[in-house]
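testing teh design pipeline on a random one, pls ignore if ur not involved
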């Protein structure tokens, strides 16, 4: 009798766990469909070693503020990055999924789990899937071109090699790039029977504008199986303007008095701050406008108003100056507004 009861209890627990799992999966699928117009991407056939990225567009159609608290992949070969941490109702964001193919061959599929918290305190999850078919005969080293942070006006150079075996007659026919910031050269370096090697040399042009570089070069080949091979190029061109701190943490706001903080904006030569974009919804920003100097104080303030967002907030201000050819400088402020 005791054994029967024990078996019955175990059966009920097992069924309950399955039901809970199915319910959670259903909820995850519902949130995925609600927030992401497209939740799957196939990179197709890619070389081994390649690092490929895809941007998933997110549109907050939930009717309440969502905070992205975690991006967790099902495999260590995949990583994620969100363009914003807090997404207001009706607003959009981008979740980038990157797959590193160095340690795999053949078909590889992974899921990027996006965990979010609603303004009402519910934890929700969406699932984004990425797939690649990784060729062992074609290898990129390294898997992408990364410049890191570089000074504007310099001309750094990086080299990537492409090796292919068991491909008699295989060759690249042309290279496609829409980037105005990069110059590239593709040269065949060896051909021995069915083994072929190429070197791709990429440099940043001296007149490249300040700001992030995120471009893709496409190498077109005569092989129907791999007609186009993507090569990601990333970096950041540091302009003449700089700010300290890099991110201004304003802390916690618990009263109508609000908070205030300051940035120091510098350049190697005198300049005038012409405008500061990004104010509103309780945020203000001011400077000694009209004054020409090589450094300026920018004061950022926040005071909660009726109807303004609560919780963790992140605001980006754009400082526009009279420096010729210099893009606006981004100033990022963070804070937490108590309910």
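output:
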């Amino acid at each position: 009798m005791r054994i029967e009861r024990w078996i019955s209890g175990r059966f009920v627990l097992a069924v309950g766990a399955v039901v809970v799992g199915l319910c959670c999966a259903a909820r995850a699928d519902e949130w995925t469909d609600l927030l992401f117009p497209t939740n799957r991407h196939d990179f197709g056939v890619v070389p081994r070693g390649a690092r490929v990225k895809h941007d998933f567009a997110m549109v907050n159609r939930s009717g309440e503020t969502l905070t992205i608290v975690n991006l967790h992949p099902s495999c260590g070969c995949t990583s994620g990055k969100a363009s914003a941490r807090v997404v207001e109702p009706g607003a959009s964001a981008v979740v980038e999924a990157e797959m590193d193919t160095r340690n795999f061959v053949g078909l590889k599929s992974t899921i990027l789990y996006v965990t979010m918290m609603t303004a009402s305190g519910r934890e929700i999850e969406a699932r984004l899937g990425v797939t690649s078919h990784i060729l062992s005969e074609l290898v990129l080293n390294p898997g992408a071109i990364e410049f890191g942070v570089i000074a504007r006006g310099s001309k750094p150079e990086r080299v990537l090699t492409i090796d292919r075996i068991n491909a008699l007659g295989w060759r690249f026919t042309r290279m496609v790039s829409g980037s105005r910031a990069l110059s590239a050269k593709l040269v065949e370096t060896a051909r021995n029977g069915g083994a072929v090697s190429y070197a791709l040399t990429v440099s940043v042009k001296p007149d490249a504008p300040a700001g992030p570089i995120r471009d893709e070069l496409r190498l077109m080949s005569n092989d129907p199986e791999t007609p186009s091979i993507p090569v990601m190029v990333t970096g950041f061109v540091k302009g003449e303007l700089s700010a300290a701190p890099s991110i201004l943490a304003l802390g916690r706001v618990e009263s109508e008095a609000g908070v205030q903080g300051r940035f120091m904006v510098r350049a190697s030569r005198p300049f005038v701050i012409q405008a500061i974009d990004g104010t509103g919804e309780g945020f203000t920003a001011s400077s000694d406008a009209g004054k020409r100097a090589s450094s300026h104080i920018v004061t950022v303030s926040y005071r909660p108003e009726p109807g303004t967002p609560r919780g963790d907030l992140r605001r980006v201000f754009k400082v526009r100056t009279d420096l010729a050819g210099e893009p606006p400088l981004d100033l990022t402020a963070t804070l937490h507004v108590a309910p």
